[in-house]
């Protein structure tokens, strides 16, 4: 502690108390905020009156029903499948449809546990200490629910898709805490066993054999909690005209390749990010060390571009009738009940006498730990003014239909600039010079870099 540091003496505390009560507005604000949610107290009535869920460019069909990830961190899976089902529903003339989120969740849990165990071997082989920053980071949360776009591509290409009715939700899909707690304990136990083997001079073959034994236990826990997907399925359904249809028996990979891929090919989509930190220039490619979910799968790659480009590509995609997956920090300047994401939705200065959440620049919020991507959703509409300037987006969330306009939000362009970090669009909309960035050798960011945060 610096020599000039001052303790909070009784005199200083009295001075703070007197300054508080000198302003009667503080007392009024205190009376309100001690009885209701402070964010609700800060809601701007005037803004709510002006916010409208109406847009002049909208995809022709939106998915039904509104999905609900419940008490899980699977937003990245839900957002992907919400985007994918729209062209699939159009292609197959469906009134309502959901792909199974639980199916991909099963495979992600299994693959990610295997990925973690191999990361523990990799770190130990590299001489990383168990109490060093890297291994501590890996052990902190060995199998969280969250993910990134490249991770979902790994799962779909390797394991395919199934309709939700054929692999429905389980208790541990909708409330993941208990299962995750079991898995984390076993993974840490198994991680220690692998490090002990390496310290004793075990060969790579011995380690792989041990991981297979460990994965037998992991598979048992996951299978008991989530159920185990069938190798093949038969899907019977009625279309909008009440005609009977039947697909199968078919494997999930064959289902994706034959019936989904023609309308939505995950390999045709590219993920662009916007990281304004001076250390990470635009027009460069980045990756995060030890970040992934599938051994042998594609790496998580970030093509860093200005936020204006991301916004324009989202608008262009929607105008061409294609929804957009995006990742953002969802908790800031967000009126959840009303479904409004706008910098003006709350008047913090009126209530607290100071503004909050945007006092730092976007770059500084990343540097000082006040901002990162936390959630993934889908854009389905956009509004522009008479000059073509983007004003707002319509957002399909995965929190059920009780928030916003039956599950949909309105998100302003200003909010996009501050809190959106990545978008996924078809590569046909992306300029050639931006696509060329994907050919670069990526700069590797450390495992704990905020751009490696997973959407949940």
From TrEMBL:
The active site is at 75, 375, 397. It is an enzyme of class 3 (hydrolase). Keywords: Cytoplasm, Hydrolase, Protease, Thiol protease. One of its GO terms (molecular function) is cysteine-type endopeptidase activity. It is found in: Cytoplasm. Pfam families: Peptidase_C1_2. The keyword Cytoplasm applies. InterPro entries: Papain-like_cys_pep_sf, Pept_cys_AS, Peptidase_C1B. Its main location: cytoplasm. Its EC number is 3.4.22.40. The keyword Translocase does not apply. GO terms for biological process: homocysteine catabolic process; proteolysis; response to toxic substance. One of its GO terms (cellular component) is cytoplasm. It catalyses: Inactivates bleomycin B2 (a cytotoxic glycometallopeptide) by hydrolysis of a carboxyamide bond of beta-aminoalanine, but also shows general aminopeptidase activity. The specificity varies somewhat with source, but amino acid arylamides of Met, Leu and Ala are preferred. Belongs to the peptidase C1 family. This is Bleomycin hydrolase. The lineage of its organism: Eukaryota, Metazoa, Ecdysozoa, Arthropoda, Hexapoda. The gene is LOC107221075.
